[in-house]
Every structure is written in structure tokens, then in C-alpha cells.
Design goal:
By secondary structure, the protein is α/β, with parallel strands linked by helices. The chain has helices at about 5-20, 20-30, 35-45, 65-90, 105-115, 200-205, 225-235, 280-290; strands at about 50-55, 60, 95-100, 120-125, 140-145, 155-165, 165-170, 190-195, 220, 240, 255-260, 265-270. The relative contact order is 0.15.
């Protein structure tokens, strides 16, 4: 029988097995607990066995789970060792630049290649839930928005610029023509949430906690940013998004309105603390020079 195991699911299982509690494991993984439960269920369906049983005290491993755990840990260790071995065997003066979602890094990459014509400069596009490629050694630097979807331990951030957050509404919505808003203007509107995001991420993009301490009215939970756009376009919810997100501009059935009085997100370049590769330092310099704010005056 042939298995194509998703290493992310295997890692999720090992963390749940370590804590034997889905809530604590979800917090450690920076995931929402329902999403973690679904991921473990996917792994169980893939293997055709039950790995965990819920109890009144938390969870416990089944016989199959206990047998799978040491093999899963060995598999993850081997995968990490393989990635690091490949990186170590790469040609000298090699750098892989990761970038999340819609962010554009072309000007900085072009400058780095101009400054180091003999270096091998690679790029890798990542979805939000693939940001662990940086601490896992699959990319050397990462351009992303804060808050980061992964723990920041062992990582160094350089802020490139602040990016305002805006309210995303259907083009025909009552607020679509406003010059700007405050959070009070849409306090009663449901805000869409994405499944599986870290609680800190969810709170930031849903403007929580609210001044009155209440959570934002919750709309449907979706799996992807594109699903979020579709839900807003249908008029079933609103969303708070980065002002510069290019995916919004591809649709003429959506509008954005600036929101006053809320903290911006930040576009940052991140690398592993202690990485002394000069190409990493030079990319940070290129990013600071060429990946600048579209909102800078003048």
C-alpha cells in the first residue's frame, strides 16, 4: 500500500501526543483547536486507523497511535535532516527567499542578483500556513506581514513599512462610498474568519478585543483568503484586510474603506537569528531599499 503522508499532519500528531490535550497542543502550534482536530482526523483517515481517543481528562493514544508515534518522530527528524543536508550540499553562495501570499519581492531579488551575479538566488512562494519553511531551513529569509503565523522564537524581524488595514465590503454596501470609518461604524457587522489560523492572528484581523470587551460578531469560517473574498462579495459578511493586498483589486464587486484608529500591520523581512550568511544580510539591505511603502508621502 502506498502512502503520501503530509508531514504537517504528522507533526501535528506528535504535538498532540506530547500534550495529550488538544487545547494545549493547538496553543503550542498556534492553530485553532477545531482546525487541529480536523487535521488529526485527516491523518487518521489517511492511515485508516484511530490514533487518539478523547477522555474526560484530555486525550490518550490508541494502540495504533502508540505504535505510530516513534515512527512519526523519526520521520520528522529524517525529513529535517534531509532538508538541512540538501542545504549544506547546495552550491556556495545560494539563498532561497520566501514570500507569503500576495507580497511582491521582485525589486529586492533583482537588486540582490545584480549585486551578486555569481550567486544562486532562488524564490519560493508560500501560503500563510507554510511559514515554518523559515525555521525548518527550507528558506533563508521570509517576507511576510505581522503578526507572523508562527512563533517568533529564534527569528529576527526587520520592519520594511507599516501597512494600513482597511474594511472590505461588497461594492454595493452602505459603507462602500465612505472616505473613512471607525470600528464603531461596523461594530454590529459579522466579520469572516479563516479556519486554522493562530488565535493571535484571528484576533488581530477581527479587531479583538473590542473596546467593550465583546468579540466581533462571527460570520462563517472559511478555509482560504479567496473564500473570504467570495463570502464578502455575496454580502454575507465583511472583513478587515491589508490595504495593499493585490488579490482584492482583481474583483470589481468589492470595495475597501480606510479604518481610522486601529493599529496597522507591518511588512517585514525575517531570518533565523544568528545566520551569518552575507547573502541574507544583503537581501535585508535590498529589501529595505526597494520594498518600500506605497503610502509614503511625496
Amino acid at each position: 500500500m502506498h502512502f503520501d503522508l503530509d508531514l504537517r499532519l504528522v507533526r501535528y500528531f506528535t504535538v498532540v501526543a506530547e500534550h495529550l490535550n488538544f487545547a494545549r497542543a493547538a496553543a503550542a502550534l498556534h492553530l485553532a483547536q477545531p482546525s487541529l482536530s480536523r487535521q488529526i482526523q485527516r491523518l487518521e483517515e489517511m492511515l485508516g486507523v484511530r490514533l487518539l481517543e478523547r477522555t474526560t481528562q484530555g486525550s490518550r493514544l490508541t494502540a495504533a497511535g502508540a505504535a505510530f508515534l516513534p515512527q512519526a518522530q523519526a520521520l520528522l527528524h529524517a525529513a529535517r535532516r534531509a532538508a538541512l543536508s540538501a542545504r549544506a550540499a547546495a552550491p556556495p553562495r545560494t539563498i532561497t527567499v520566501g514570500y507569503l501570499e500576495d507580497l511582491v519581492i521582485t525589486p529586492a531579488v533583482r537588486d540582490l542578483r545584480r549585486r551578486h551575479p555569481d550567486a544562486h538566488v532562488r524564490t519560493r512562494h508560500l501560503d500563510w500556513d507554510e511559514a515554518r519553511a523559515l525555521p525548518d531551513g527550507q528558506v533563508d529569509v521570509l517576507v511576510a506581514r505581522t503578526p507572523l503565523p508562527i512563533p517568533g522564537d529564534g527569528l529576527t524581524e526587520t520592519v520594511l513599512y507599516d501597512e494600513p488595514r482597511v474594511l472590505l465590503v461588497p461594492a454595493g454596501h452602505r459603507l462602500a462610498g465612505e472616505e473613512s470609518l471607525t470600528r464603531d461604524d461596523f461594530a454590529g457587522e459579522p466579520l469572516v474568519a479563516c479556519a486554522g489560523v493562530a488565535p493571535m492572528w484571528a484576533r488581530f484581523w477581527r479587531l479583538e478585543p473590542r473596546p467593550d470587551g465583546q468579540p466581533a460578531p462571527l460570520a462563517l469560517v472559511v478555509d482560504t483568503f479567496e473564500d473570504k473574498l467570495e463570502l464578502v462579495a455575496e454580502g454575507r459578511a465583511l472583513a478587515v484586510v491589508p490595504a495593499g493586498d493585490r488579490r482584492v483589486t482583481l474583483r470589481d464587486d468589492l470595495a475597501t474603506v480606510p479604518v481610522e484608529g486601529i493599529e496597522p500591520c507591518r511588512v517585514v523581512v525575517v531570518h533565523r537569528t544568528g545566520d551569518r550568511d552575507p547573502l541574507v544580510a544583503d537581501f535585508v539591505t535590498s529589501a529595505r531599499t526597494f520594498l518600500t511603502s506605497p503610502w509614503t508621502a511625496g
